[in-house]
Write a structure and sequence with these properties.
about 475 residues; alpha+beta; Outer membrane efflux proteins (OEP); 4-stranded antiparallel beta sheet; about 60% helix; elongated; lipoprotein; palmitate
């Protein structure tokens, strides 16, 4: 009894050592700024669906469809389910393993003196149980690591959703602005054809030369050649949108219903502070979870170098024949202590590897934070630059239109310098296209800003892959 009491005291003492929580200091990349270098706006960030700020029903429908059908999101959901199953499997280590066994055997032996053959039968039915006492917290650490991997997978899912939403908005903006370019090219073609007819009429009256007509024909052909290219570009953008929404390219069409509608451009939001990205960006949360998981894995690996205690037992019925089953019984219990002595350095190497993985995860986490800050800074700079360029282009376009009016006025009064008209019209065409292109670049910068700022707006999608419908807790 005294020996059993000492064993129990030892087990309780070792159990009290428990699992050691990985000690991670507050990890922030060196040089993380207190504020962004580029100035943001004063309006608050959209609470949920930022793309609704563009005022397009078509865009809203496309984003919602993509969030429900995109293949990247479906892959991320499957990985999240796998991580949830891994977490459930990891919790099984807290419980004993119980198995039911049924055995039937027959033994025949021959007596060497009498030559008599004897047949012996044996039938056993019993329950066998085994339990690993989590003295050093290995099971708890492994389970905690699986929980962190689940959180990382959830961050990956949210990051995939945010990337898909931004990609849909980006593709939609390119499509709409290509429609504007097509509409612009068709209008320019009609104007150039009208001017060609005017030149033909002037030629018939002896007021223009054949060279003027030939040059204007060249302009008409040049402007008209852009239209097939733009139509082809529209189809390619539809193909990309089809993939984003999980549909076949041949069965998808956007229709161009909004090509003449001005898209509302919301005010520039306040980006907040760089430190806030740690909570807003799901990829940063995923990197942080992977770092914590690596720490738990390291603790579990260290625990494997320490002695292990396993409790086992079995109980059941035994008999020499089926008819006698139930008359005999067996019951035994055992405790096994395994102390690592020599393994060729395998356990020590595994610990060193797990420590290296932790350092790797630290670097990955710091990189994700700095990358997020850079993406916000880039988006703010791009939008500010495009805003300035748009203002400059509008002024140049107004001046070019005034120049064209004056050139046309002089030409109609009998001036013979048609080159001034051609040059002015060419400059206007270039500036009109530049204006549309700068507008789409500004919109892409705004989309990139919302993508870079992150958020937690996709709760419905996060719940979609959870067995209990929760979005922020482990299943």
């Amino acid at each position: 009894m005294a020996r059993l009491f000492c064993i129990l005291l030892t087990v309780l003492f070792l159990w009290g050592c428990g699992v050691r929580q990985p000690d991670f200091p507050e990890i922030l990349p060196q040089g993380l700024p207190d504020a962004y270098g580029a100035e943001g706006g004063l309006s608050a960030l959209p609470a949920e669906k930022w793309w609704e700020g563009f005022g397009s029903l078509e865009l809203n429908i496309l984003v919602e469809e993509a969030l429900g059908s995109n293949l990247d999101i479906r892959e991320a959901l499957a990985r999240l389910d796998a991580a949830a199953a891994g977490f459930e499997a990891g919790k099984s280590g807290f419980w004993p393993e119980l198995n039911f066994n049924a055995e039937a055997g027959q033994q025949r032996s021959r007596n060497s003196e009498s030559g008599q053959v004897r047949t012996t039968e044996r039938y056993n039915t019993f329950f066998a149980a085994s339990y690993e006492v989590d003295i050093w917290g290995r099971v708890a650490a492994a389970s905690a690591a699986e929980g962190e991997r689940f959180r990382a997978s959830r961050g990956d899912l949210e990051s995939a959703a945010m990337t898909v939403a931004a990609s849909v908005a980006d593709t939609w903006s390119l499509y709409v602005h290509t429609l504007y370019l097509l509409d612009l090219a068709q209008g320019q073609l009609a104007e150039e054809k009208t001017l060609l007819e005017i030149e033909k009429a002037r030629f018939s009256r002896g007021m223009a030369g054949i060279l003027d007509i030939l040059r204007q024909k060249e302009v008409v052909l040049g402007v008209g050649s852009r239209i097939p290219d733009l139509k082809g570009e529209l189809r390619l953008q539809e193909h990309r949108m089809a993939l984003l929404t999980g549909r076949a390219a041949s069965e998808f069409s956007m229709g161009g219903a909004e090509k003449r509608r001005d898209i509302f451009f919301p005010a520039l939001p306040d980006p907040g502070l760089p430190l806030e990205l740690i909570e807003k960006r799901p990829d940063i949360r995923a990197a942080q979870a992977r770092l914590t998981a690596a720490g738990w894995d390291m603790e579990a690996t260290r625990a494997l170098r320490l002695p292990g205690l396993t409790l086992s037992g079995r109980g059941g019925l035994t008999a020499a024949g089926l008819a006698l089953l139930g008359e005999g019984w067996l019951l035994d219990a055992a405790a096994g202590l395994a102390i690592p002595v020599f393994d060729g350095g395998r356990r020590r190497a595994n610990v060193a590897r797990s420590e290296a993985v932790v350092r790797e995860r630290v670097a990955a986490y710091e990189r994700s934070v700095l990358t997020a800050v850079r993406e916000v800074e880039d988006a703010l700079v791009r939008e500010a630059r495009q805003e300035a360029l748009l203002g400059e282009t509008r002024l140049r376009l107004d001046a070019a239109r005034m120049t064209l009016e004056e050139a046309l006025r002089r030409y109609r009064l009998g001036g013979d310098n048609f080159d001034l008209v051609l040059t002015a019209r060419s400059r206007i065409r270039d500036l009109e296209e530049r204006l549309v292109n700068q507008q789409v670049v500004r919109m892409q910068a705004r989309i990139a800003l919302h993508r870079a700022l992150g958020g937690q707006w996709w709760e419905e999608g996060a719940r979609a892959g959870r067995p209990d419908g929760s979005a922020g807790t482990l299943p």
